[in-house]
């Protein structure tokens, strides 16, 4: 589910890796807005801030 959303919303790798996996049988819905753009009905839980790409600690 996260991978699909990463591709659909053009998230960066850092953004993708900062989000937690949904729980078993947990659902998200794509909602079509008035501007003809899709959004998630609720966001994924963020378990850390995205790290800048290419910087290692």
What would the keywords be for this entry?
globular; 2 strands; alpha+beta; PGM-Related; 57 residues; 11% strand
As residue ranges, the low-confidence spans are: none
Strand order of the largest sheet: 1-2
* CA-based gyration radius: 13 Å
- Give the overall form: globular
Q: Calculate the terminal CA-CA distance, rounded to whole Å.
A: 29 Å
Strand count: 2
Described by strand count, sense and barrel closure, the largest sheet is: 2 strands, antiparallel
**Level of helix content?**
10-25%
Number of domains: 1
Strand/helix succession: HHEE
- SS-derived structural category: alpha+beta
Strand content: 5-15%
The oligomerization state is single chain
Number of helices: 2
Mean of residue pLDDT values: 89
Question: If you had to describe this structure to a student in words, what would you say it looks like?
Answer:
InterPro entries: PGM-Related (IPR052765). This protein is α+β, with helices and mostly antiparallel strands. The chain has one domain. The chain is 23% helix and 11% strand. The protein has two helices and two strands, in the order H-H-E-E. The chain has a two-stranded antiparallel sheet. The longest helix is centred in the first third of the chain and has 8 residues. It is globular and about 30 Å long. The model has no long low-confidence stretch (mean pLDDT 89).
């Amino acid at each position: 589910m996260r991978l699909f959303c990463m591709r659909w919303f053009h998230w960066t790798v850092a953004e993708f890796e900062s989000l937690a996996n949904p729980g078993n049988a947990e659902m998200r819905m794509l909602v079509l807005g008035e501007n003809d753009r899709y959004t998630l009905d609720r966001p994924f839980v963020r378990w850390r801030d995205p790290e800048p790409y290419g910087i290692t600690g």
